[in-house]
């Protein structure tokens, strides 16, 4: 009891000015007070890099001009000063290369998704991970929401019976027009295959829907029938996807992901139906979970500490009593919290329990590639093959 | 002004005790006071037939033991007593035969959907209809909702721009278990191909979703990629359907119809997105229409007389000021109202303006057959061919 | 079984062109097919009167120029033709006089609320009613909603424990501006004390809130502390009311009624809390009833036939399965249905069971007068005295 | 640009194990990375104090056994190590004494509300504050929500016209039963007048409703008519309050605050109506603001960066794009952020702009005392006198 648990020393690659997701990571990591930012390579633009580091309270000496230099320099520092965890918030094409090098250099890695640009690249990363002592996590933030864990728990405990149907959707509207051409930097790099990968919408948000579906419904998707679309002239990558799917456990479902549903914000949602009832969760109202049943009126389970009908996995991801809304940053902070625990107490098999790991990344990447293949295929069903 | 407009004399085929939909028809027809029930052949069970007629205020003389006798006897009555409109609320297999004979006998017909058991049977009915002087309408009740007309008007007026995406779904839960085997009569006949047709869920509610999509989005669906399911042992017809689709106008979409979404009631819904915005309508909250836009905050248009921002087609289908909920029966009553107007003022081309006619029936039937064909096909896309 | 139950012959006083509420009565009475309009004195304007009767299918002979003539003439008709039930949908000042004469002439009366212009006038009406053989009902439509009965049943059965708090509100916005001065006829007569009575908003909708509170919470309100307001220059009657109240059973509460909550439609709502839980019902979503509890997650009970967890009183007021919305007209039709049953089977003590009777009228009138007295009083509490 | 802005060094009084609100303060302060915890006097229980400090990463040397010692010791430290801001999260009775001493010792103070146990005590604190160089803020967290600022901005800009009605409510359910007697520590101290002050519910949450009403509606409440209640045997302080009120600007309203609305969580809400429209905000869905209008359909303004129709004051309090929910901790973090800015850039008149200051505290305390006086008075209206 007398030893203060030191904060985890954290460095960032990426996240210069204008990066929404990097700011979210800083806030999420700050929320529970278990992390300390010690270094960064925020931007290839030297001034941006320094300004960002300065704003975040770093001395110039630990604002590195490249991530390679950062890995090298940090590795040379005394253990008690050295960065422990590297957070990767760059455009997609750097995720795997940076992660590989960081793991090889002895650091833990928390990476934005997707884990790589291709399944091949990712399998290589897995090999490196397996040969390292590092822990690896993916920022599938939506898997940090407590009511997502509650839903999964109810499915696993048979509350809705055998799962038959999974309906998951993620309709956004922000790419309805040519925002990349109008200077939106988020849209700009996402529109370039070299930076973003082969998938556009299917990779950016389709993977969220996919991972949520497999996680909550406790199913393994085995076949896809996908139709992708591009709706803005000159856009190179898909901005819209819809697909039918089947699971190994015998369920079927629909996955919708789109960035041209004009006017929509971020309403990721999932519904799972079994032979006894169904569950519904909507990210824009993340503190509610609807449970429908053949045997009783509809119930709305609400997030909040101290409610005996919620499972432990959900409750331990909550900070506040019911009626005090928690949101996106809290969900991401739950991933950080689990990562912190794993770093201090030791994870398992290169994974921080509670944090989506390389397997989620592999399945997500297989999903992207299968969806694209299915789109180009005349066959109805394309198998999704990924043994993780 | 001095001549009272006489009520329309109406007869029923089907609708003996226990028929939910027949009761709804009686109530909807009664709502606006423009119809008078004068005869019926409610049930093949003689006692049920008489009890039903009695309960509905009919003399025994006009409770007929068969629909054939009814057509014959009513035809022989003086014009001012004779039934004018025949309402068909039997199981599906009788829809087309009764309609054909009734039209031939000089009566107008308002039929429950589907219009026939097969496309072939329905094309025959169309020929008969074209050769008759009768008006023909289909009880696609959801097309009677005022905010559905409002949505269609906004789409047609370009409020959301060019339509790109159509998401329509109709998830029910009442066939999650073997209710037919447990004595539910609605489920019983619906489960028999000879009475119901080749489609189960796809015919019963899939057609509602299909017709709503084409109506609101003002699109013609040309290709389907469908996956149907059967989830209860011994059930002969599909209880679940999901499909991707494409339209002649270049949009794509998803249609979900299911009767095994355990715990769901009747949440038919549609979302349509164009390049400027989107619309959302949900049947369980039928008095609201959500309009999202790239250029302004989300708006909720609400049903209710006297609101200048609603279109005429919507307003004339409303009875009450905003905040006084209207529902399913009022929507059906709107179809009856349009039918009454057409009967008294003359319709056009065998159709009552405002009431879904034979073309909606034909497209719906083509939809059913195409969905089933697609389900059995290994090809991704199956064309939906139906020139109406 | 061989005798057809004849429809109830109904006449109207009031309800010429432009009357929203009269049209609602026609529709509600028509919905279940148990009433037949046989006569009317719709308007003092002769042409309006005839036009209205004509539109409603009446012969000129039974469109009477005054209600007095109607009572006299109908009384003289043979019993099997004669009007049985008089529906009063005039401005308020005629409610009691017409009702009194009609009861004296042997007719049943279904009156719009308020039952009279003053408590004194209403007590006189009660005396006449008690001396008659007639049944008397008040169109407190909101008490016809099935989920209102469900809520009352749950309160009575102790589901929420001992009632502590009652929060009832009825905020409308349609009198936010000087609509009477702009030609709105509904607003015009409501603004004249001689036609409307001493209360404006407090009488027009405050009584709805009051009656709903006493009905659902199963409480008797004994003390008021009211603040009324007038917000438009030149308006004579209150357009806004708020008050604290106490009940004989020990609960306390708040009642809000306003017609200057700009932009609001008709969101009458009630919340009742006991020591174990609470109930919430909102008229604009009338098919849902929310049940909160200390011991389980929030439940939403939904209207719809065939749900075993709903009480008989609620279920028998429903026509459709869950998910098929019923609304305002169906609620009013429930009052008509109960009135029809009472007329054919005999009511009790001048009342049709299920239909708000003279007692509800008396308490409502006492409420209006007490609220006005309280508003003008400097004392905090003003007793509401009304033994019915 | 080359100088890193140092984090603000923060100390806590109160917040030992089991304190929900202290944990929320730590998280809120951590969210944006501008604060650093340097010391604390968390609990009078020495072990609890040390454990808490240890968990929070403090060395034993800066875990003080009493707040008096902490003030003294910190004051003696070099300026660059010394605590700058004292956060007070004790039970109510210590708020003012600790704040007074801290201000006198040269520290800034951020205090949980209420600011004191009585108006007299608080006026004394104000004098001390005015004589100090410190900044003083109150954790009225709900005033940190961005859509609350948006609502206020719209009111001030006349979007809803002249304000007529203000309806504010805060119904909780957690004191429905004798939870203090069952070991709930939050309930325990709140139930003791010596620790909590003269008001129970009225102080604990009534002040939130009061401050929100004055803030959003931009009104000064001048008269109250209150009814308080106690619903659990042996409870000393009110657990329920309802009141009518009037404002200096001519509006009227209703305030409801209760802790015995069994089953309710934390649905603080406010509705403000002017002569042109109305606004509605609900804390449990804090990212939405409903705008009703006489001239257009209902609009729902949604929180999220980058929306040109939101005001600057709202947007600068948001971190994420629309559809990424922010909640209670983010609202509190907004207060911390404004406090940080004021500390680093200089506040004004002992206040951090954007953070509720001593004036909000004074009006809140006057509200509590006036509500209690009104409850005990037979007069309808009790003036709320507080010139700040």
Automatic annotation (TrEMBL), chains A, B, C, D:
This is Gfo/Idh/MocA family protein. Residues 8-130 form the Gfo/Idh/MocA-like oxidoreductase N-terminal domain. Transmembrane segments: none annotated. InterPro entries: Gfo/Idh/MocA-like_OxRdtase_N, Gfo/Idh/MocA_oxidoreduct, GFO_IDH_MocA-like_dom, NAD(P)-bd_dom_sf. It comes from Pseudomonas retamae. Residues 150-280 form the GFO/IDH/MocA-like oxidoreductase domain. It holds the Pfam family GFO_IDH_MocA_C3.
């Amino acid at each position: 009891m007398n030893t203060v648990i030191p904060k985890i020393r954290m460095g960032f690659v990426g996240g210069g000015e204008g990066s929404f997701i990097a700011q979210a990571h800083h806030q999420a990591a700050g929320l529970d007070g278990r992390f300390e930012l010690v270094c960064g390579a925020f931007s290839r633009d030297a001034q941006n890099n320094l300004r960002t580091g300065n704003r975040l309270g770093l001395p110039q000496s630990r604002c590195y001009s490249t991530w390679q230099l950062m890995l090298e320099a940090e590795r040379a520092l005394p253990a008690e000063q050295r960065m422990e965890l590297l957070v990767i918030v760059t455009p997609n094409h750097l995720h795997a290369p940076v992660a590989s090098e960081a793991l090889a250099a002895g650091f833990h890695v928390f990476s934005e998704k997707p884990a790589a640009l291709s399944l091949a690249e990712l399998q290589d990363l897995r090999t490196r991970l397996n040969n390292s002592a590092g822990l690896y996590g993916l920022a599938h933030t939506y898997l940090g929401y407590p009511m997502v864990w509650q839903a999964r728990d109810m499915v696993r405990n048979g509350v809705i019976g055998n799962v038959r149907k999974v309906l998951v959707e993620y309709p956004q509207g922000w790419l309805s027009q040519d925002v990349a051409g109008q200077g939106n930097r988020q849209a700009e790099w996402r529109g370039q295959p070299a930076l973003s990968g082969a998938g556009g919408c299917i990779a950016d948000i389709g993977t969220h829907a996919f991972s949520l579906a497999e996680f909550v419904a406790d199913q393994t998707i085995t076949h896809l029938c996908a139709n992708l679309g591009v709706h803005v002239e000159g856009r190179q990558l898909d901005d819209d996807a819809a697909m039918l799917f089947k699971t190994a456990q015998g369920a079927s479902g629909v996955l919708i992901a789109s960035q041209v549903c004009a006017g929509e914000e971020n309403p990721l949602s999932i519904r799972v139906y079994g032979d006894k009832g169904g569950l519904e969760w909507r990210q824009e109202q993340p503190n509610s979970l609807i449970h429908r049943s053949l045997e009783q009126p509809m119930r709305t389970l609400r997030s909040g500490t101290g409610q005996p009908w919620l499972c432990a996995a959900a409750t331990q991801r909550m900070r506040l009593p019911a009626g005090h809304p928690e949101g996106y940053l809290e969900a991401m902070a739950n991933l950080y919290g689990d990562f912190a625990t794993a770093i201090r107490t030791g994870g398992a098999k290169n994974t921080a329990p509670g944090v989506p790991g390389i397997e989620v990344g592999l399945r997500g990447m297989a999903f992207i590639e299968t969806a694209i293949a299915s789109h180009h295929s005349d066959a109805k069903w394309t198998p999704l093959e990924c043994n993780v």
